[in-house]
Fold these 3 entries.
Entry 1:
Amino acid sequence: MRNFEYESPESLEGAIQFLSASQAKPLAGGTDLIDHLRTGRVVANVVVDIKKIPELNVLEINDSGLRLGAAVSCMKICQHEGIREQYPSLTDACTIIGGIQIQSRASVGGNLCNSGAAADSTPALIALGGVCVIAGPDGTREVPVEEFCTGPSENILKQGELLTEIRFPLPQGKSSSHYRRFIPRFEMDIAVVGVGASVSLDDAGEQITAARVALGAVAAKPFLAEKVDEFLVGQAPTEEVFTQAGEIARGLISPIDDHRGTAEFRTHVTGVLVRRVLTEAAQRAAAK
C-alpha cells in the first residue's frame, strides 16, 4: 500500500474542500476502500474520513419519508424498527451485506458509491424510489438512485462531490417491498442475480396500483426495469402475473458469463427471482 494523507473533517464544507484535491477518496466504512488501496485497485493521495460529519449520519423517518445519511452503518439500518416496518427491502439487503463485523462498518452510501453491478443495496434503493443528495463545490443537487451508477465501478460524482444522504418517499396505504439475491454458496457472498421490488395495492388488495422492480448483477449497472413496472400496474397480484413479469425482465437484461454463473443461468434465475420477490412484496403489502 502506498502512503497517503488522512483527514477527518467534522463539517461538510471541510470534506468538500479536501475531496476537491487530486486523487482524494472518501472513507465511510472502508470495507472496500481499504482493500482496494492495499491491492492498488484504487490510488489515493488523501483519504477523507467522513464519519464525523452530521449531515452524513442523519437517520430519521418523518412525514416526508426516510432520510438516510450516506455514512450510516448497515447495522443501524437493520436495528431501526421504522425501516423494518416501512422499508423492509432495505433491511433485507443490509442483513446480507457481509457478516456482523462488516455490517457494523459498511454503509449503504458507500455500497452505492462503489457502484458495483452486483451491489446488494442498490436494487433495493432503486425499488424504494430513492433520491441521492449530492453536495460539492458548486452546491447541492439531487439525482434518482437509478441514474447514479453509470457503469461498473463508475458513477456521476464529480471531483469534490460527496453523496450526503438518500431520501425515500413515505409508503402509502397497502405498500411494501422486498429484496432477494441468488448466490452459488454462502462462501461466495456476491450476487449472481439480485432483485428488489416495491408494490402498492388498492384498498381491497386486488389490484396493483404502482410497482418498481430493479435488477442487479445482470447488466453493467443495477437498473430500473420500467417495462416490468408498466406491465404490473392495473394487474392482479397473482402468481401468473408475476411469472409474466419475470419473463419481461428476462428480455431486458444483458448478463455475462463468469466463474459465478453463465449468462444463460442468470437469465433463468432473473425470471424466478422477479416472481418470488414480487410475490413476497405483494404479500407484505396486503398485510398492511
Entry 2:
Amino acid sequence: MDKIQAAIAKARAARNELGGEAPDIPAPAPMAKVPLRRPDAISRILAPKPPSPKIARTLAWQPLATFAPNAKQMERNRIVTFSTSGKKASGAIAYDMLRTKILQEMRANGWRRLAITSPGPKCGKTTTALNLAFSLSKQPETHTIVAEMDMRRPSLAKTLSISGDVSFSTVIEGKADFADMAMRPRPNLALAVNHTRARNPSELLQSSTIGKVLSEIEKQFDPDLTIFDMPPMLVTDDTMAFMGQVDCVLLVAAAESTSLGEIDICERDLAAQTNVLGVMLNKCRYMDNESGKGRYD
C-alpha cells in the first residue's frame, strides 16, 4: 500500500512539473475488515452434536448385565411368550392381544407406568407380568422395564433363576443404582428383581424418595413402558400405598377362586387412585365355544 501511494504522489509531482494533465489515479479502496469469529461460536461449531434420543437410549441400555433364561424352565413356569420361534405356544396369542390393547390404551393417553395386581395370592399376576413383558420384547422399538414391587414374597428371581445380592428395594432406598442391578434377558427388556424380603415394604412404597428414584430411572433409560409387579391387594396395604405413582392398573383374577365381591372391592379402591384398565380372568379351565375359536398361525 505504501508503494502504491508513493507512486501516485510521484506521478502527480511529475504532472505538476510538466504542466500536463495526467489522469488522476484513484486511491485504492480500503480493504474490508473480515470479522473474527467469537471463541464461543467456534466452540459451538466444533462441539459434537448430542446423540439422538434413540441412540442415547441404546447407549444407556447396553451396559446393563445380560442373562439367558432357561427355555425349559420358562415353559414349566408358563411363560408362554418367551419363545421366539415362528410357532406360538398355547396361550401366547392371548397375551399378544393383551399387549396390543394395553399399548394402544397407554399410548392414546400418554401413560408409561402400568401396575399389575390381584385380589389375593396365586392369581397369576407375576406370570401375567412376565408374559406381557416378553410379548412386548418382540417389538424391537418398544423398551420395557419390569420392576418387582412385591417385597414381602418376591418370586421373579426364582422364576427366572437370577442370582445376585442387590435387590430393587435397595435402589428405592437410594443405596444402589438401577444400572448396577438390572438384568437384561432381551436387548429391549430389563428386569429389576428382589432377592430378599424388605423389612418395611409399605413404608418404602410410600416414601418421599420413591417418586424421585422412578423419575431418574425413566430419565436415564427412557422406557416406553414400566410394568410394576405388585403384591396382592387384599393381603397388605402395600399396593394401595404405591398406586399414586402409576398411570394405570390391570387387575388379575383367578377363575373359581376370586369372588365377584373381591373384584368389586379392588376395582373401587383402585379407581379412587388411578386408572383401571380392566380385569383379566386367569386360570380359566373351561372356555365357551366362541373363545379362542380357530387358530390363525
Entry 3:
Amino acid sequence: MANDTPNENASAGHKLGQSIGDWFEECFVLPLLQQVAEKLRLYLDHRFRTRKARGEKILWKDEEGNIVDYDFVMELEGSEDEIGIPVAFFECFWRRGSRHSKDKARDDSGKLAPMKLVHPTARFLGIIAAGDFTQPARQLILSRDIDLFYVPKEKVIAAFSALKMQMDYPDRASEAEKQDLAQRFLQSLTEKMRSKAAGKLRNLLGKAAINTYLDRVRAVLGATPQEIRFLARHYSAPRIFATISAASAFLKKPDFDFRNPTETYVYQITYSNGTEFERVVDSLDYLRQLHEQAEKLASHIASL
C-alpha cells in the first residue's frame, strides 16, 4: 500500500515519502489500472472512491478467514451496491531507499498469494512498485508467481524535475534541509502539478510499457480452463472434464457414487498457461458456487 496520509509528528523525510506514495497511487497507479479495467469491462475497487457495498477499506478474507486490506481489486459483475467476483488483486508502493526491500517484497507478496487459494477467478496478482527496490526483492516477487510493474526511482525524480520540482535529497542531508525541501515540494504539489507529474512519468515509461502491462493482465485472465476435476475426498476416482460446459452439466446432477453425508470435495482446474487452482470444500453447494464463478469469468473473457 502507498503511504498513509502525512501526520504532523512525522519527520520531514517521512512526510515527503508519504506524499509521493499517495501521489503515485492516485495519479499513476489508479489511472493505469482503470484503463486495464475498462478494456476488460471489469469493476475497479480502490480507496479513492466511496462504495455502498463496503466500508472504508477494501477487505477480503484469505484461506484461513483472516481479513486482509488491499489497495486495488478488479471484480467481475461488481457495482457500487454489490461486491463482485474478484479476478485480480494489487498492491502498490513508493520506496525512496532500498533498505528492507526484501521484507517489503515478502510482506506484499504474502498478502496477495493466498487469494489464488481462495478464489478460482483470482487469476492475476500484481505489485506496482516505484523507487529504489532491489533486484533480489523484485526476484522474490516474481518467484512467487506475482506480476511486477516496476518504475525506477530515477524516472520518478525525472518526472518532477521536468516541472522544476525537487523531491529527493542526499542521504546525509540534515533534518533542517529535509524540512526545507519537503516544504517547498508540498507547496508546489497542487492538483495541477500532481496530474502533470503523472503525465511526465507515463511519457518517460512509454506507451509500450503501458500496453504491455494491459496485455499481461489480459493474457493471465484469459487463460482458459483445459481440465476440470471434481473429487469426493473418500472416493478415489475423480470426475474429469475437458470443458467448462461439460463440468457444469455434471454439477446439475452429480454422481460421485458414495453415500457418506459428511463427504468433502476437491475442486481442481488446470489452465492453458499451466497454472492450477485447487480448493477443498465441504458441500456440493460451495463446489457449484466456485465453478459458477470460474464459468462466468471464462465466458466474460471470451466475449471481449
